[in-house]
UniProtKB/TrEMBL annotation:
Gene3D superfamilies: 2.60.40.1240. Residues 122-137 have a biased composition (Low complexity). The keyword Transport does not apply. This is DUF4190 domain-containing protein. The chain crosses the membrane at residues 25-44, 50-67, 79-101. InterPro entries: Immunoprotect_excell_Ig-like (IPR029050). Residues 116-137 are annotated as: Disordered. It comes from Blastococcus xanthinilyticus.
Length: 281
């Protein structure tokens, strides 16, 4: 008696569509958290040194987390991308802010050095032996540059072309959103400048115009929010030798204009000797 051959035992494997479960997204989460913290701290002087370290660590975590997520073995693709972007952006911000702060510190140090070089101790001298002809002359008042005459202000040769003491109507016509002068009267000045520096000049930001009122108060163009027909903030970037003409405005009480003075100085300067006075009218 014969028996039919038995079928070989079948092995049961995972169905064709089976995929092993993805592992966690710990690297991606850590990279994202470090990137966000580094980006928030990257603007703060001194502290942004630590932000750079956090960004580097986060970048080192974000890259493998992104590679794992692309292979499908781990989750957190979006968080890995966020970590990569924020860490790179934080490093860029750190480098930019460090360069800016270094320039500001160098400029302040140069101004302090110039001020220190200008201070000299007077030599002791016997009053009885002093020659009357050696007496220093009385210091003359600050020189005022006339209208249309150029003068050197920082890295610019600046000429005052025109002054409109009551520019309320001109300012109102320049832009429909300009509000009336808070102090009562707009003073508008027109300057022509030539950049004499060696790099790039931004005259609308590099220079500041100030009206010194007879009420012993200063009224700066930075306090005037009105948009002018040829506004200083629209002045182009100048290469060495480049020139432009633009306008500043100051918001001044009318009563403070009698006997007022106009000055122009570099915006980032703490040296009063860099200030140049122009004839106001």
């Amino acid at each position: 008696m014969t028996y039919p051959p038995q079928a070989p035992p079948q092995s049961y494997g995972p169905p064709p569509s089976y995929q092993p479960p993805k592992k966690g997204a710990g690297l991606a989460i850590a990279a994202m958290v470090l990137g966000i913290i580094a980006l928030l701290l990257s603007w703060i002087p001194i502290i942004n040194n630590g932000a750079a370290v956090l960004a580097l660590v986060g970048l080192g975590l974000a890259i493998p987390a992104l590679l794992r997520a692309r292979r499908g073995t781990h989750g957190g693709m979006g968080m890995a991308i966020t970590g990569l972007v924020t860490t790179v952006l934080a490093l860029v911000v750190v480098f930019v802010t460090q360069a800016f702060y270094a320039d500001v510190i160098d400029e302040v140090q140069q101004e302090l050095d110039r001020a220190a070089d200008g201070v000299t101790e007077p030599a002791a001298q016997d009053p009885a032996a002093q020659d009357p002809t050696d007496v220093a002359p009385v210091e003359e008042p600050t020189e005022v540059v006339p209208l249309g005459v150029p003068a050197q202000v920082g890295d610019y040769q600046v000429r005052l072309d025109a002054v409109e003491l009551d520019a309320n109507a001109t300012v109102a016509a320049a832009n429909q959103f300009n509000e009336p002068a808070a102090n009562g009267q707009y003073v508008m000045t027109q300057f022509s400048v030539t950049y004499t520096g060696t790099e790039e000049g931004f005259p609308g930001m590099d220079l500041t115009a100030v009206v010194h009122g007879s009420d012993n108060r200063q009224y700066s163009d930075s306090d005037c929010a009105a948009v002018l027909p040829d506004d200083a903030m629209q002045a182009p970037t100048l290469n060495p030798g480049g020139s432009d003409t633009f306008q500043f405005c100051m918001d001044v009480p009318p009563a403070a204009l009698a006997g007022a003075q106009l000055s122009v100085e570099p915006t980032m300067s703490w040296d009063s000797d860099a200030r140049v006075f122009y004839a106001l009218g």
